[in-house]
């Protein structure tokens, strides 16, 4: 088996999953909402990128910015129109989850309706992906050279914002205790808006990049949701670096992992989603209660008997 | 009746309950006090099976109940109330009390569809619940939703609910917190009556010492998870450790 | 004239009523789990699909064995042979239907019990995620595994138990009556279950599981039972649908179905079976009115794919109800037991000499 191609695919998809999942992690960290409509922030980003590039003819970078903005606005709208009013009324968290399912349906099928009416049920952003250098039987391409560093850059920015700035400190205070944040004079709703814009923006960006790499349809966000959740949950649901690790694990498991299983045990590649699911279940069973506490690094450290915590920021 | 031996519970680095030995005799009313965060609620939680202890043993009525599940602790006749009233919000006041009765045949899903099998018991339990609500002067709100009550009434429903389970011993976590002084005293009068008439043993956590000390002959003081005093309420103000614990809190 | 029109509408009406019956069973059982028990079983469609696979697979295999068909249950000749055999042998096919219902209810219950394992360990949001994805995984497996329901192609040749009536209209009418009887039966049974101390137990676990525990409730058992009963009813609903469609297709059991059912429960009113009756009716009617076939009945052909609009409306209903009427169309009622009757009948009792409580209790809140 030639390893280079699956490894390269794993890294590329891992980056994309990470980028998709970062927003979900951010959402949960700040608002404690398990947001199923996150899938649609990704999907809208994909469609905006494809439409702006293919039909309006702007450059791919401009299209990605448009995707970022569009999904950021959508995320903001979700919060203002549904989550925030529910939250203010003190609805149980499960209601917010149910509301997010409602939002998902509205957005997903509006997208279906529009895409169908305009003949774009299937679309791909038309950007030539150039081979840069040969790697074994395959090539390293411009796509990978952009996506991988970009993902890492987004993580670094989010991490820095969250942990080393006043705004980030306030966001974390808000996540821990809203009342405290209110009393200490932090403008909660401004912060909340900022958080949602970042959530939407990064998800839209991820969707946009995905639409360059693969053909998309209006269901692609929803179909990726299992992996997005798996990446985020695996990373502890509140840690950005955890999400990166989670994203790459999913990327590798679903490509290299399933390719290996396929070659050696004849397991159908159609079972790839089972891996993400198995991961979610495993994490839940290992540490079902303390969700925020599961971060992979400390888990690994525990397994190795090392007591070195690679992710000191993770909240216990 | 209740005996905790070297009982300990930690939360990460916090020693919420730190090797506490407490013994309450049958028929006693004992007060448990201590500054905020001294571990009183945690002690109740460990005894009632909500948390598993990190160390030590709990005995109740001669049986070892260490680490039993909460429903098994209840079965033994040891029942607790909550510091902040926690009523079932989607239920009537009457239903809140009905829930707590023990050994309800109709709770068994295999019997539930057949009214004939549990209807009679249900009627008897309803009479008992109504009696309890009447004693607590809640009759007029019995068909209100639990959410429609005032804070004081909620405290009373918690009491009635706990009593419906026919407990041998009640662990009450601040039964008079946030309640007007007059009502607080009636609650304690009620407790004394229950103690005399039904022989229920009480361990009562309470911050309002002025009221508590009029009703208990023995008081336990906790501080930083440790038991620092066990004795007469009159002498508690003279005890150096206790003074230090409470002053330390204010400082 | 009038009669003729009605006659042409028989397929439409019977389909509508059968779907209503199936949706009703699904929403009533989800209401039992989520509305009463507080368990967000948003993988509900999976338990429906279990009933469907059991019914389809059992019936197809058994009939295949009887007709000695070759090539397994998925082969077209076998499927054809089954459909030819059934009209001549009413006893066999009715028997298969009854047998499927019983086995599906059992297997559904067993899977419900298995689902209680995560249900005891996870916080409700995470439980919802897990159950949704369990359902998805189930679907992925079945669509890739030919032996269960013929994978992507789906299993056909599961004859309607009234196929021996020959006249399709008659067959559909008879089957619709049967489906409605099943739905009515489920309604009665669930009503009996919840209007009992068991219903009160479920509500207590839903409202505050910790308090329920300290009041002696074996919370894991209560949750497990809610899931067993709910899943069992869902599986029976699955059987009803399979014999109506005369086939099973794994891709019919997507999370979307659960969400439509969820919208019925939320619209009708959680923990209120009458409300669910209404919610399911409204959403099923919507489902039918926004469909191409409905418009063609009136001679209108549409350019748009209206199915999308259906789901948009479903989403809007969910959000709007949560925002503006969280209790649903009909709000929650107390559990009706003989005990409640006594409490209702008892007059306002006079304060006794026991507790002297100040008149204005509310000052206590300050
Ligand atoms: N679930 C928990 N997780 C972590 N720490 C806890 C938990 N419960 C209690 N603690 C900590 O244990 C200590 C004891 O708390 P506890 O609630 O038992 O005190 P208390 O005496 O009941 O106080 P109060 O008078 O305010 O009710 C505190 O420091 C508290 O922060
Ligand atoms: Mg306390």
Task: Give your account of this protein's structure.
The complex is a heterotrimer of chains A (316), B (251) and C (366). Chain A has a domain of 218 residues. In chain A, 73% of the residues lie in helices and 3% in strands. Chain A contains 12 helices and 2 strands. In chain A, α1 runs antiparallel to α10 and α6 crosses α8. Chain A is globular, with a radius of gyration of 19 Å. With 251 residues, chain B is an alpha/beta fold. Helices cover 35% and strands 24% of the residues of chain B. Chain B is built from 8 helices and 10 strands. In chain C, α3 runs antiparallel to α5 and α3 crosses α11. Chain C is globular and about 65 Å long. Chain C has 366 residues and is an all-alpha fold. Chains B and C meet through α2, α3, α4, α5 and α6 of B and α8, α9, α10, α11 and α16 of C. Magnesium ion binds next to α1 of chain B.
Describe the structure using short key phrases:
heterotrimer; A: 316 residues; mainly alpha; 12 helices; disordered C terminus; C: 366 residues; 2 strands; 1% strand; binds adenosine-5'-triphosphate; binds magnesium ion
Q: How would the blueprint of this fold be written?
A:
The complex is a heterotrimer of chains A (316), B (251) and C (366).
Chain A: H1 4-31, H2 38-56, H3 60-88, H4 93-117, E1 131-135, E2 138-141, H5 142-164, H6 166-176, H7 178-183, H8 188-213, H9 220-234, H10 240-265, H11 272-286, H12 296-304
Antiparallel strand pairs in A: 1-2
Helix pairs in contact in A: 1-5, 1-8, 1-9, 1-10, 2-3, 2-4, 2-8, 2-9, 3-4, 3-8, 5-6, 6-8, 9-10, 9-11, 10-11
Chain B: E1 2-11, E2 14-24, E3 29-33, H1 40-47, E4 55-60, E5 63-64, H2 70-75, E6 78-80, H3 93-99, H4 115-135, H5 151-164, E7 169-173, H6 181-198, E8 201-205, H7 209-212, E9 218-223, E10 226-231, H8 240-250
Parallel strand pairs in B: 3-8, 3-9, 6-7, 7-8
Antiparallel strand pairs in B: 1-2, 1-4, 4-5, 9-10
Helix pairs in contact in B: 3-5, 4-5
Chain C: H1 2-8, H2 10-36, H3 44-67, H4 76-85, H5 90-121, H6 124-144, H7 146-149, E1 155-156, H8 168-194, H9 197-207, H10 209-214, H11 219-245, E2 247-248, H12 255-268, H13 273-289, H14 292-297, H15 306-324, H16 338-345
Antiparallel strand pairs in C: 1-2
The structure holds adenosine-5'-triphosphate (ATP) and magnesium ion.
């Amino acid at each position: 088996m030639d390893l280079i191609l699956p490894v390269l695919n794993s890294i590329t998809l891992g980056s994309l999953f990470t980028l998709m999942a970062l927003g979900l992690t951010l959402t949960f960290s700040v608002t404690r909402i398990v947001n199923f409509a996150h899938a649609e922030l990704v999907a809208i980003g994909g469609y905006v990128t494809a439409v702006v590039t293919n039909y309006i003819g702007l450059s791919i970078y401009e299209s990605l910015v448009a995707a970022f903005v569009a999904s950021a606005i959508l995320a903001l709208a979700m919060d203002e129109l549904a989550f925030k009013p529910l939250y203010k009324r003190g609805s149980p968290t499960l209601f917010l989850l149910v509301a997010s399912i409602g939002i998902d349906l509205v957005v997903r099928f509006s997208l279906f309706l529009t895409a169908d009416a305009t003949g774009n049920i299937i679309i791909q952003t038309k950007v030539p992906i150039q081979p840069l250098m040969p790697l074994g039987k395959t090539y390293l391409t411009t796509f990978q050279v952009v996506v991988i560093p970009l993902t890492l850059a987004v993580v670094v920015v989010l991490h820095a914002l969250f942990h080393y700035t006043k705004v980030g400190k306030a966001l974390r205070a808000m996540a821990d205790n809203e009342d405290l944040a209110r009393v200490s004079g932090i403008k909660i709703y401004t912060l909340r808006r900022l958080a949602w814009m970042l959530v939407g923006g990064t998800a839209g960006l991820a969707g946009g990049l995905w639409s360059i790499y693969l053909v998309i349809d209006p269901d692609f966000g929803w179909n990726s949701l299992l992996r997005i959740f798996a990446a985020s949950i695996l990373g502890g649901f509140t840690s950005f670096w955890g999400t990166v690790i989670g994203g790459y694990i999913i990327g590798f498991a679903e490509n290299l992992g399933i390719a290996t299983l396929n070659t050696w045990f004849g397991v159908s590649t159609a079972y790839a989603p089972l891996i993400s699911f198995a991961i979610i279940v495993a994490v839940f069973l290992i540490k079902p209660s303390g969700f925020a506490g599961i971060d992979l690094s400390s888990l690994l450290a525990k397994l190795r008997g090392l007591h070195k915590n690679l992710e000191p920021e993770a909240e216990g | 009746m209740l005996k905790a031996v070297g009982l300990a519970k930690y939360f990460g680095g916090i020693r919420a309950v730190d090797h506490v030995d407490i013994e309450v005799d049958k028929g006693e009313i004992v007060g448990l006090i201590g500054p905020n965060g001294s571990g009183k609620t945690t002690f109740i939680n460990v005894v009632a099976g909500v948390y598993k202890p990190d160390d030590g043993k709990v005995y109740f009525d001669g049986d070892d109940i260490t680490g039993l599940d909460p429903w098994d602790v209840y079965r033994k006749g040891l029942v607790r109330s909550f510091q902040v009233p926690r009523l079932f919000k989607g239920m009537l006041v009457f239903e809140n009390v009905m829930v707590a009765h023990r050994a309800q045949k109709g709770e068994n899903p295999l019997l539930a569809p057949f009214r004939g099998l549990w209807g009679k018991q249900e009627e008897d339990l309803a009479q008992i619940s109504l009696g309890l609500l009447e004693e607590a002067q809640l009759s007029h709100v019995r068909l209100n939703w639990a959410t429609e009550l005032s804070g004081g009434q909620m405290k009373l429903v918690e009491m009635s609910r706990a009593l419906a389970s026919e407990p041998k011993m009640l662990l009450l976590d601040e039964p008079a917190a946030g309640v007007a002084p007059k009502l607080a005293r009636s609650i304690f009068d009620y407790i004394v009556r229950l103690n005399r008439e039904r022989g229920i043993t009480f361990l009562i956590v309470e911050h309002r010492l002025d009221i508590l000390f009029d009703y208990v002959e023995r008081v336990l003081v906790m501080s930083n998870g440790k038991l620092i005093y066990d004795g007469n309420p009159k002498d508690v103000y003279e005890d150096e450790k206790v003074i230090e614990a409470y002053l330390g809190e204010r400082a | 004239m009038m009669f003729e029109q009605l006659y042409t509408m028989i397929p439409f009406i019977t389909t509508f009523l059968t779907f209503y019956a199936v949706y009703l069973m699904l929403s009533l059982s989800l209401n039992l789990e989520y509305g009463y028990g507080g368990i967000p079983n948003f993988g509900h469609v999976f338990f429906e699909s279990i009933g469907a696979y059991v019914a389809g697979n059992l019936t197809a295999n058994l009939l295949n064995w009887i007709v000695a068909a070759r090539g397994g249950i998925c082969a077209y000749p076998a499927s054809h042979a089954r459909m030819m055999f059934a009209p001549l042998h009413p006893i066999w096919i009715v028997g298969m239907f009854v047998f499927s219902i019983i086995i599906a209810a059992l297997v559904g219950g067993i899977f419900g019990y298995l689902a209680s394992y995560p249900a005891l360990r996870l916080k409700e949001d995470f439980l919802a995620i897990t159950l949704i994805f369990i359902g998805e995984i189930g679907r992925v497996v079945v669509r890739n595994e030919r032996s269960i329901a013929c994978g992507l192609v789906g299993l056909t040749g599961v004859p309607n138990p009234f196929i021996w009536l020959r006249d399709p209209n008659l067959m559909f009418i008879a089957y619709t009556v049967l489906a409605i009887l099943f739905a009515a039966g489920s309604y009665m049974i669930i009503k009996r279950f919840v209007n009992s101390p068991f219903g009160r137990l479920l509500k207590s676990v839903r409202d505050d599981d910790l308090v329920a525990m300290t009041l002696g409730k074996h919370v894991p058992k209560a949750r497990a039972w809610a899931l067993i009963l709910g899943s069992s009813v869902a599986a029976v609903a699955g059987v009803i649908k399979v014999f109506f469609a005369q086939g099973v297709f794994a891709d019919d059991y997507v999370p979307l179905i659960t969400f439509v059912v969820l919208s019925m429960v939320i619209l009708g009113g959680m923990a209120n079976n009458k409300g669910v009756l209404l919610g399911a009716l409204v959403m099923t009617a919507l489902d039918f009115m926004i469909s191409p076939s409905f418009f063609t009945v009136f001679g209108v052909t549409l350019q748009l794919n209206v199915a999308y609009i259906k789901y948009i409306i479903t989403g809007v209903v969910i959000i709007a109800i949560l925002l503006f009427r969280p209790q649903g169309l009909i709000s929650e009622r107390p559990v009706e037991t003989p005990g409640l009757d006594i409490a209702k009948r008892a007059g306002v009792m006079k304060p006794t000499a026991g507790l002297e409580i100040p008149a204005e209790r509310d000052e206590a809140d300050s």
